[in-house]
Amino acid sequence: MLPDKIPLLEVAIGDNRSAGQLLKRSLYEFRYLSPAVHQPSVALLMPADTRLTWQDGDLFPSMDQNLPEGDLFMRIRALFPKQPTTPMHLLALIGRNGIGRLGYTLPEHPQAPPAPPIAREALLQLPFTPQVFAELISAYLSTGAGIAGVQPKIMVPDRAAIPLPSLIVKAAGPAYPELAANEYLCLSAAKKAGIKTPNFALSDDGQLLVLDRFDFIEHEDGRIERLGFEDIAALAGLRVRDTLSDRKYQGSYQAIAELLKQLQLPRENLLRFFEQVAFSVMVRNGDAHLKNFGLLYRSARDAWLAPMFDVVTTAIYRYTRYAGGPELEDRTMALKLLRGRHHTRAYPTNEALMAFGRGVCGVANPAVVVQNIAQAMTETLQQAKNDDRIASTLRAKISATWETGLAYARTGTRPSA
Question: How far apart are alpha carbons 182 and 176 in whole angstroms?
C-alpha cells in the first residue's frame, strides 16, 4: 500500500536514477537535479538545456502517456480498492517499468521485489482462460502497470539477468474475441511488407500474443540501453486518459506528418510513417489513433519513428454506442487523412491515398508501398489457411475485409468503405 498523499517522486532517466524530482502541489513541477550538459531530457520538448524547472497544471504529457487505463486500470482498482489512484500514485506503481526510459521512486518507501521471470516458451504454451490471464496479471502487476491501452495486457520479465519486464502479453476481451490472433495476422503481414514491427509470437492455442518491448536495446556486452519514447499525443501536448480519451481521435495523419517534419527527423521516417498509415488503411485498422504512433530517441538529434504496434483489423467487430443501442460496424479511420473541417474519417480512395503519400509524406512512388503491402497481405492469408491457431471464422472475416484493402493495389479502382 502507498501513502494517502504523494507530494514528491524521484525521477530516473535511463541509467541516471537521480535525474530529477516530480512534485505535486497546486501545480505539477519537474526539477532537473543535474547540470544540463550531463542531463538527458525527460521529454523531447522539455530539454534540460532550456531550463531546469518546468511547471504545468496537469501531469506532463511524457509521464501521463503511460498511466494505466482501461482493463489494467480497472484491475488495479479491484486489487487495491482503498488505495488512491491519483497520477502520482499510479506513477509510483509503475516504478521503473514503464515504456520508455523514465522511472519513478517514492523516497524512503520499500520497493516491490522483482517478479520471478517466466520464459517466452512457457507463455506460448500457457492454456488460456480468463481466470489464468487474471492470475497472470495479478502475479505480474508490479512489472506491468506501466503499459497504457484499453486492451487486456500485462508486461512480464523473461530473464533474471534483465531487471525490466521485457515481454508484453496481450489477450482478447469479451467484446473483441480472437483479438490476439487478429493482431498476429496484421503484424505478420506488416513484417512481410518490410514494415518495422516488434518481435512477436502467437501462443499455441492462439489466445495470447507475446511481443518484445521495442524501447530498449540489449547490447552484446549485456548492457541494456533504455530509449526515450513518446507517443504522438504526448508530443502534441495532449493528456488523453479517462473521460478525455476521445482526444486521441482528434486530428489528422497529415498533422502527424507535419509534426515529424517540425522535429526534423530524417526523411526516411516519413516513408515509414506512410507505410504505417497505408497499412492501417488497407487492413481496415480503424484504431490507428494518436497514441498508436510514437518516437524513440536518445536525444532531439537522434530520434526516429517507433515500429508499428497495436494494429488490428477493427472492421470485423461490431459495437454499440450505448447500452441497448443498435449494433454498428467500424467503417471509418481513427483520424482524418487530411486536416481541415471539410475532411472526414472516411477511408480514402486510391487516388487520395497516393496523393497523401506523394504530397504530404514526400514518397516518390507510393504505389510501390501499396503493392508490397498487398502482396504481404495475400501471402499472410494463404499461410493462415494452414495455421490451426487461427479460427476458421476469424480467417474468413479477415479475408473478406482485407479484400477491400487489396483493391488499393489494383489500378483505377476505388475501394469502398
Answer: 10
Single-letter residue type at 315? A
Q: How many CA atoms lie within 13 A of 288 on its CB side?
A: 33
Give the cell for residue 234: 504526448
Strand ranges across the sheet with 102-105 = 53-56, 28-32, 16-24, 8-13, 102-105
Q: Give dist(CA 344, CA 361) in Å, integer.
A: 19
- Cα–Cα dist 251/235, whole Å: 13
Whole-prediction pTM:
0.93
Q: Is the pLDDT of residue 113 over 70?
A: yes
Enclosing H/E stretch for 111: none
Give the CA count within 13 Å in the CB-facing half-sphere of 97: 32
Q: Which residue has 475485409 as its cell numbers?
A: 401
pLDDT tens-digit map of 248-268:
899 999 999 999 999 999 999
- What is the identity of the amino acid at 187? L
**Mean model confidence pLDDT for the chain:** 91
CA distance linking residue 160 with residue 138, whole number of Å: 19
CA dihedral sign, ordered 82, 84, 85, 88: negative
- Provide the 3-class DSSP secondary structure of residue 61: helix
Please provide residue 78's backbone torsions phi and psi, each rounded to the nearest 5 degrees: -70, -40
Cell representation of residue 127: 492454456
Radius of gyration of the chain (CA): 21
Percent of the chain with pLDDT over 70: 95
51: left (phi over 0), alpha (psi -120 to 50) or beta: beta
* DSSP code for 242: G
Query: At which residue does the C-alpha cell 516491490 appear?
Result: 112
Angle between helices 392-406 and 366-384 (to 10 degrees): 160
Phi, psi of 19 (to 5 degrees): -75, -35
Between the alpha carbon of residue 113 and those of residues 85, 116, 143, the distances in Å are: 21, 9, 10
Closest C-alpha to 380, from 244, 203, 193, 218: 193
Cα 157 to Cα 115, 120, 139, 162, 167: the distances in Å are: 7, 9, 11, 7, 6
Nearest CA to 184 out of 166, 174, 165, 169 is that of: 169
